[in-house]
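Bug #2210: token dump truncated for Quercetin 2,3-dioxygenase?
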Amino acid sequence: MITLRPGKERGHANHGWLDSYHTFSFANYYDPKHINFRALRVINEDWIQPSAGFGAHSHRDMEIITYVLEGALEHKDSLGTGAVIKPGEAQRMSAGTGITHSEFNHSATDPVHLLQIWIIPDTQGITPSYEQKAFPLEEKLGKLRLIAAKDGREGAVKIHQDVDLYTSVLAAGDRIVHKLNPNRYAWLQVAQGEAKLNDYHLQAGDAVAASQVKLLDISTDKGAEILLFDLA
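Reproduced locally. Full output below:
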């Protein structure tokens, strides 16, 4: 079964300095039909204006992944981490027993465009931790690159949940086939461009949830950047 989640139906909040679209219920946006998908709890697509951002705030018991599409995001946290996240990198923050952080657009002139992803961990009360890795573009061109996984295999950042997160950058004419094992679920998010999943035509911001499907046939006529979650 494949279910479409149109990007135009997402929750939306424009605060001036922040323009945000919510795939799942978040903050003042609540939709009982879209609370989460398996352990996937949040996908927010954010545009943050130059020199603006989120002041210090706290999280508990959540795996938070930041994936920058354009621009650069500056991060500071109560672990003493200071970092700048750029396109091609994945940042993972395990909030565990509690962590405080801030996020700001690193540029004084250009907006930053990013996806912030929350995954419900399989264990609560873990020690907070931070990880950030770069994944070269050539490793994602026309193929799936694992960027986050429970076992941290293939150089992916390690998350505390049975979820494999892949990303890919597809050129016009590219095609990827992903086998979905029995009792596994998939969520495909189109970050940029246009893609096709089986018989579904998808625009940037669109997503599909898949279950009881053996093969995911992903292609594009115009080019796309996608994120694929393979979930327990």
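Output looks complete on our side. The CA atoms of residues 74 and 84 lie 4 Å apart. Marking as cannot-reproduce; reopen if the truncation happens again.
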